[in-house]
Structure formats: C-alpha cells, structure tokens
Specification:
The protein is mainly α and 316 residues long. The protein has one domain: Rhopdopsin 7-helix transmembrane proteins (Up-down Bundle). The protein is built from ten helices and two strands, in the order E-E-H-H-H-H-H-H-H-H-H-H. A two-stranded antiparallel sheet has the order 1-2. Strand 1 and strand 2 form a beta hairpin. The longest helix is centred in the middle third of the chain and has 34 residues.
C-alpha cells in the first residue's frame, strides 16, 4: 500500500473487464470507500482548515521571523523551514480537490504525491531538530554555547531538506518494496525521540526550580510552558498514527484504507495549522495585527502572558 500524508492513497487504476476490454473508472476521492466515507470526509475537513487558517498563519510566522532576523533565536531557522513546508502543503490542497473532481491529470497527481511526501517527512524531522536544540540548551548549556553559530543549524536544515526531497521523490516513483515501512519507522523514531527529549527538558526545568513551577525564574517558567506546549502538540498529532499504523496487518484492508489511514493522517495534517497558531499565541505582540484582532483569535492564550516583561524576547 502506498502510504501518503493524506487521502487518496493511490490513483484509480484501470478496471479490466472480460475479453480483455479495459475501461477506466472515473477518478474519485472515495474510490473503493463509497460506503465508508466518514474517515475521508474527516480528513478533507481538516485539510480545508489548513487552507483557510494554516496558510495565513504560516505566512505570518515567516514574516515575523524575517522581521526578527536581527535578534533571532536559535530555533528560528527550523521554525521558518517548518512554516514554509506547511504553507506549501496547504497550498496543494485546492490543487488536489481540482484534480480529483475536474482535471484528473496524472502529472498533477505526481505533484500532489510529492507534497504528501514533504508533509510525511519535514514536520517530524524539523520538530525533532527543535527538540534537539532545546535539549542541548537545557541539559548541556556549555556545549550549547559552543554550538550557537548558525552554520550548525543551517547544515542540519539542509540535511533535513535533502532527506525530505529524497523521500518525496521515492514516493513519486513508487514501486519500492516495503516503502510504507519507511514512514512507519520514521514516525515511531521521531515520536519516541521528541517525547523523551521534551520529558527530559521538563524534568530538568522543574528540578532546577526547587519547590515547583511557580518558583521558577521567569525565563525558565517561560521555557517550561513552551516545551510543554510542544509536547502537547506532539502527543495530539502523532499519538494516533503511532498507535495504529504499526498494526496495519490486524485490520481488514478496507477498514485500514478507508478509516484508520485517513483519520490518522488527518491528525498529522492539522499540525500545519496548530503549530503556527501555538507559536503566534506565545508572542507578547503579534506584528501586522491589531490588538483587538489578536484578542479575538487568541483567547485561549494563558493570562500569565500579560505579566511577561515587555522587554523579553520570544524564545523559540
């Protein structure tokens, strides 16, 4: 089975009939799942949210990072790359809809498959890079001070881009034996690393505060909240596919393809919206937007944010 970061899984094949007469079945997003459409509709709904909310949010994150380039944090290059990839993936969703219902072009489907490969790989790897950056900063501050130069993060980002494009190209080519196991192994490895990494960071920050989180230094408390929010995102978006995908052989093929796979990938896809919104909610002030607009769309932000010192830089 060709594993994608979204539905559909494969283009509609030719339906060979008797007497060697072949007729092509019209391309349909519900191909093979006409009576099991709930999971697919759920995934398509979340993809629509990525278009309406995720693309503008990711573009705003990129603009903010560019404006703050004179005082960047060490993770900005990872955040910017992740936002760019998420915006690219979201922009392919309307193309996917048009191809499913209007164009039905093989060439366009190839481009869509490539974007699925980008989403499969770039999100987990860049989040792992962010976790690694904070892990070293908190647990090995002396080593972190020696590795602050941008060349290290730029090199790691180039490596992630190369791995992402190699995986996406392999997905487009198709036909590789057990290729779907690559994604399963990747998601299991990155999920385990991010959970362990963030748990160690939280434990170290809490331990260094003595009595508890309320007695932390303001900057440590802020770092604690940031890492905790990242941990929540990781669990929410990755736990379901990590828990279900390794057990593909235990499901009926139609159930896995029409329910388990689209629902699991839907949670991965919605991270393209959740990640930039969480970043924007942590800012003391969002550039380009009025205070009333920020309050309207970010009411879930903790009240403690107003108590932050106005001169604090956003540590991401």
């Amino acid at each position: 089975m060709d594993t994608n970061a979204s539905w559909p899984t494969v283009p509609t094949p030719a339906n060979v009939t008797s007497f060697n007469n072949a007729t092509v079945k019209p391309f349909s997003v519900f191909d093979g799942c006409e009576s099991l459409v709930e999971g697919i509709l759920f995934d398509l709904t979340l993809q629509s949210i990525n278009v309406l909310v995720g693309i503008p949010a990711n573009i705003l994150v990129i603009a903010i990072l560019i404006c703050n380039r004179k005082q960047p944090s060490t993770s900005d290059i990872y955040l910017g790359s992740l936002a760019f990839m998420d915006a690219y993936f979201g922009s392919m969703t309307p193309v996917s809809f048009l191809n499913l219902y209007h164009w039905q072009s093989k060439e366009v489907w190839t481009a869509i498959k490539f974007s699925y490969g980008v989403k499969d790989t770039s999100g987990p790897l860049f989040l792992s890079c962010i976790c690694l950056d904070r892990f070293i900063a908190v647990l090995f501050p002396l080593t972190f001070g020696q590795l602050k130069h941008i060349k290290y993060r730029l090199s790691l980002s180039v490596l992630v881009f190369c791995l992402t494009f190699a995986y996406s190209a392999a997905k487009v080519v198709g036909g590789l034996p057990n290729f779907e196991k690559v994604f399963t192994g990747e998601i299991l490895a990155t999920f385990t690393w991010m959970i362990v990494c963030n748990a160690c960071i939280l434990w170290t920050l809490k331990k260094s505060s003595g009595a508890g989180k309320d007695d932390m230094h303001p900057m440590k408390r802020k770092a604690f909240k940031i890492v905790l929010s990242i941990l929540c995102i990781i669990v929410f978006t990755y736990l379901l596919p990590v828990a279900l995908f390794p057990f593909e052989d235990y499901y009926a093929p139609d159930v896995f393809r029409c329910y388990v796979q689209p629902v699991g990938f839907a949670f991965l896809n919605i991270s393209s919206t959740i990640q930039p919104l969480v970043y924007l909610s942590r800012l003391d002030k969002v550039p380009f937007l009025s205070e009333s607009c920020v309050k309207k769309w970010c009411r879930f932000v903790a009240p403690e944010k107003d108590k932050n010192q106005p001169g604090q830089n956003q540590s991401t």
